Amino acid sequence: MNGIFSFARLGALLIKEFIQMRRDRITFAMMLGVPLIQLVLFGYAINNDPKSLPAALVATSSDPYTRAIVAALQTTGYYRFDHVAQSAAEAEFLISRGDVAFVVTIPADFARRVESGENPQILIEADATDPAVASGAISTLGTVASQALLRAQGMQEAAAEAARGQLDVVVHRRYNPEGISQYNIVPGLLGVILQMTMVMMTSIALTRETERGTMENLLAMPSSPLEIMMGKVLPYLAVGAVQVVVVLAASKLLFAIPFTGSMSLLLSAVLVFVLSLVLLGYTISTIARTQMQALQLTFFFFLPSIMLSGFMFPYRGMPDWAQTFGEIFPLTHFLRITRAVMLKGAELPAVATEIGWLVVFVALFAGVALVRFRRTLD
Amino acid sequence: MNAIDVHGLVKRFGDKTVVDHVTMSVAEGEIVGFLGPNGSGKTTTIRIMCGLLTPDEGEGTVLGFNIRTDSLMIKREVGYMTQKFSFYEDLTIGENLQFVARLYRLKPVEEYVARTLDELGLTSRRNQLAGTLSGGWKQRLALAACIMHKPKLLLLDEPTAGVDPKARREFWDEIHRLASGGLTVLVSTHYMDEAERCHRISYISYGKMLATGTVAEVVKNAGLTTFVLQGPQLAKVAEELQGRPGVDQVAPFGATLHVVGSDRKKLEAALADVEKEHKGVTVAPGETSLEDVFIQFMSGSKDNMA
Question: In terms of residue numbers, what domain contains A79?
Answer without folding.
Answer: 53-165
